[in-house]
Design goal:
Blueprint lengths: L1 H7 L1 H9 L4 E3 L8 E2 L22 E2 L6 H6 L22 H14 L6 E6 L23 H17 L5 E6 L2 H6 L5 H7 L60 E6 L6 H6 L1 H7 L2 E3 L14 E7 L4 H9 L6 E6 L3 H13 L8
Parallel strand pairs: 1-4, 4-5, 6-7, 6-8, 8-9
Antiparallel strand pairs: 2-3
Helix pairs in contact: 5-7, 9-11
Amino acid sequence: FLKYLKRNYENRFRAVIANGLWCATHPYLANHFYQEPPGGPSSAARPYYQESADEPGWHFEYPYDPLQQKNDPGRTVFGGTQLTPWGDPNGLVASGQAFQELLVKYFNAGPVPVVGTEGGIWKIPRPDDIPHLIDDRYPPYSYESHSEATLAMFEWIARKGPPWFWGVTLWNETDYYDIQGTVLAIERLAGKAPLVKDVPSILTDSRSGEAPVVEDTPEPDAPREPAEPRPTPQPTPIVIGPKNASGDPDYHWLILAPGLQADWFFQAARRYWQTFRPTVLPDWDLIDRVPHNKSLAVTVLARSDTIDYVNERIRDAWPTVHYDPVVFDSLTEMQAELDRRATYQLRFGGE
């Protein structure tokens, strides 16, 4: 993107940089954060159940934190090691760091403000969930430690984060207020006065008087004879997601709504799955990857307190999908309905 702007609109984009450019990123932290044990070392992590936002030693600078650099020395947001040949921007400030470095490379400019417009420590555990472990090089996080780390994250942004990183918007309101009620992380944040980040004045349109280092910039084209005028090409519409479902779908997915434990599948849906063999997925994020020439049906197991959320994410967002919600607040009642479907060969309910 920046290489294209350099080649085609350098002067215009330099004016944008100098007149208020800011960068929106989408930081997914996974569990790429940790707190040092009392007394260190900085490359070690406390167990998740000992983490406290009221104590120092937090690290959110992935992949530049001491733990990561000990495991894979030299790793950067662009990779730089055999373990990361394609880069590693999966941290709080990593995508912003990548943008800043490319801004210097192609325009000798920056830094510019960066705001995480969606992200944070995603997938909030329930109080009785096992701790979430995404990357086993780092500690998992539980319902309680998620709240400590969320508070510590905002304090780290204000006190230790890069001056160009202005903050992050948590994903998302439903997860923090509706599905479980107001979660513990919100209570922890509400109990602390917000910190004011001291942002120094920064000249963004040029970092120095040196010439920028830019690779692969082609020589200007030679003058050409005027060409015959061509009709204005019409844009090709971009179609995302499956085609309209009719008859037997090409794909059938089974999804547990947020908040349902695994036993709702293994007990309530066992016979149903053995009979119809739907593909079991943890969420609906892959719907946009279904080829447009294929159809999709999604059976969702949900309780009444989460079905509105799922309706919005699947039924309302993807009208071409055959949407099949199975809503019960009792595991026994849900099993009875799914067993009925299996007995009478009614994949999507019916009479």
